[in-house]
Amino acid sequence: MAELKVVVEADGGSRGNPGPAGYGAVVREAATGEVLLERFASVGVNTNNVAEYAGLVAGLEAALELGATHVEVRMDSKLVVEQMSGRWQIKNAGLRPLAARAADLAGRFAAVTFDWIPRARNAAADALANRAMDEAAGKPVRDTIAKEVVPAAPKPRKSWAPPPLDEATRLILVRHGQTAYTSQGRYSGRGDVPLSDEGEAQAMAAAGRVAVLSRDVAAVVTSPLSRCTRTAELIAAELGGVEVTVLADLIECDFGRWEGMTFADVQERWPDEMNAWLDSTAVAPPGGESFQEVGERVQRALRTVLSAYAQKVVVLVSHVSPIKLILRDALAAGDDFLHRLYLDAAGVSTLDVWPDGGIAVRTVNETAHLR
């Protein structure tokens, strides 16, 4: 297939922040600068940042429709460019779904770059965003656009019935079997603690459950730690020798100096640090990794998996923290969800993900196979 390299110029604005908001996006042929497609729409009452992310999503969707293979995104939003480049954390929970949608779209191209440009060089997208806000307010529209503008595609209709399953990628999430640390209630992060005998039995039981859920598994993708790779091997064997792929981003949270300690140990020695960690996903254990950082790499792992195994069934073998974060985002839940969900060793959860970003969580922490 021939390469199509495009430039996406995107912008968004809000008259009030929050206030009436809209976005604009322009897709140009990279070599000539010719406008291939334009999009604009109102996003109701929202903030500048939400409108800017909406413009980015619309621009990437338009590039995908054109069959683009390489995309250079240009925006005058430093926040969006830095967050999408992975240099800044996404602390605003309201932006995470839009950022995740943009990241999912970006993962479908051969290459995507994000570049900041001055507002003066983003005039076309800015004009579209203002046109969207003017039209929403019933104001006369300035004649600033010579070419036909293609309206943004309508959002998928909400329904109790999900789209056809043959369009979805099914993810079967499996926590590894029990280890010595699991049974003792110790923080087990980057330490390579192997499965116990009980953990081996649990992993085999989980393998049987996965086989019941689907025999048509394309791959088993796993964290690099042995408690996961062993669980993955047993699942793959039960499925008849399915390919096992190690994905480093599925590794457990780095608990730093808390590694190998119990909750009581940590509470006694680091009470202030423990309380701060429990209160915010942006806080890391001493010498460790925050849940925000874990969430960012887990989303990166999901983009890789969804790109490589679109519309197939994939088993992901990982740890408590990554699986909780996947389920939190899938359910559009807040951070308190992380402390309210319990995941058993060798528990199984299932969700379907559609190309338009739709998600259906089917099961959470199945454990009947362990009884």
Round the Cα radius of gyration to an integer and report it. 23 Å
Spatial gap, N to C terminus: 51 Å
Counting DSSP E segments of at least 2 residues, the number of strands comes to 11
Q: Give the helix tally.
A: 12
Helix content: 25-40%
GO molecular function, one term: phosphatase activity
Binding site for substrate: 227
Protein name: Bifunctional RNase H/acid phosphatase
Domain RNase H type-1: 2-142
Structural features, described:
This protein has helices at about 50-65, 80-85, 95-105, 125-135, 180-185, 195-215, 225-240, 265-270, 270-280, 290-310, 320-330, 335-340; strands at about 5-15, 20-30, 35-45, 70-75, 110-115, 170-175, 215-220, 245, 315-320, 350-355, 360-365. It is globular, with a radius of gyration of 23 Å. With about 375 residues, the chain is α/β, with parallel strands linked by helices. About 35% of the residues lie in helices and about 20% in strands. The termini are far apart. A hairpin with a 5-residue loop joins strand 2 (about 20-30) and strand 3. The strands form two sheets. A six-stranded mixed beta sheet has the order 8-7-9-6-10-11. Strands 3-2-1-4-5 form a five-stranded mixed beta sheet. It has two domains: about 5-135, Ribonuclease H-like superfamily/Ribonuclease H (Nucleotidyltransferase, domain 5); about 165-370, Rossmann fold (3-Layer(aba) Sandwich). The longest helix has 18 residues, at about 50-65. GO terms for molecular function: nucleic acid binding; phosphatase activity; RNA-DNA hybrid ribonuclease activity. It comes from Mangrovihabitans endophyticus. This is Bifunctional RNase H/acid phosphatase.
